[in-house]
Design a protein that fits this description.
By secondary structure, the protein is of the alpha+beta class. 37% of the residues lie in helices and 24% in strands.
Length: 273
């Protein structure tokens, strides 16, 4: 084995005396030197016998890797099915409970109702009896004795009476006026009955509003008299004041007007009030 002192390369060919790279004379070296041996270029292709590369057996290409399975869609699906099952059961039990409640109510009503052979006739009688009993209880109710309560009630009744007059609500007037009502047809007017009052009543478009003041109550058993001052405000700006005295009777469980008097204090010019 020979070595180049310039590039420090070694050669095993005994026929070489000079370095094939730089031409430096080669010097012999001991054979036990483990320095890398470089063979001549001319013999590299003939002596190279490299084994072809083979990938390890455990190697798997990216295109063939198995995709991991997703678990959350299964969890959501199972949870949704479970909730739907609970909801369906809740609806079912709710319907059953409601049906059972209705059946028990029907049985209770059936058992509490007396057995009748003539259903239509007796059903009408049973239906009418409670209303008749309530009507009788209200009709037979004694007249109120608390003057403050009666005064408040009659004030409200006076306002209802006035609204019915302005709007010509004859149905409301028929309830407020007693059948034996007799009152003035206007300030210092002639007396008139309930039928005449209802016949002449027409809608009033002049009155805008009214105020009542200085109300005084006289209460004697089932009779009451309410007196005071009523002031009318017309739409054209005029104002008229009147003294009123209305009489009431407690009949059929309510107060009904039996008479009315109206006296002008300061009537507006050109009005029929």
């Amino acid at each position: 084995m020979k070595r180049c002192s310039t590039c420090n390369r070694t050669y095993t060919d005994p026929n070489l005396s000079f370095c094939i790279d730089d031409g430096t004379p080669l010097t012999p070296v001991a054979t036990d030197d483990e320095t890398t041996v470089v063979k001549p270029r001319g013999n590299e292709d003939d002596e190279w016998n490299a084994v072809a590369y083979q990938p390890p057996q455990s190697y798997v290409t990216l295109g063939n890797q198995p995709k991991p399975r997703r678990v959350w869609p299964w969890v959501i699906g199972i949870g949704g099915a479970f909730l739907l099952g609970i909801l369906a059961l809740s609806i079912f039990f709710g319907i059953m409970v409601q049906r059972r409640f209705r059946e028990s109510e029907r049985e209770r009503v059936t058992t509490s109702r007396p057995a009748n052979s003539n259903t239509a006739e007796n059903s009408n009688a049973n239906t009418a009896e409670p209303s008749k009993a309530n009507s009788n209880s209200s009709v037979n109710a004694p007249p109120p004795a608390n003057e403050d309560q009666v005064l408040t009630h009659l004030k409200d009744l006076e306002n209802e009476w006035m609204v019915a007059n302005v709007n010509a609500d004859k149905k409301k007037l028929d309830r407020i006026l007693a059948d034996d009502y007799v009152g003035q047809s206007g300030p210092e007017g002639a007396l008139e009955t309930k039928a005449e009052y209802l016949e002449r009543t027409e809608r009033d478009t002049q009155i805008q509003k009214w105020e009542m003041s200085e109300e005084k109550l006289t209460l004697t058993g089932d009779r009451a008299t309410l007196a005071g001052i009523v002031t009318f405000f017309l739409r054209d700006g005029r104002v008229g004041s009147f003294d009123f005295k209305d009489k009431f009777v407690w009949r059929d469980g309510r107060w009904q007007a039996t008479g009315s008097e109206l006296t002008a204090r300061r009537p507006p010019v050109g009005t029929d009030l």
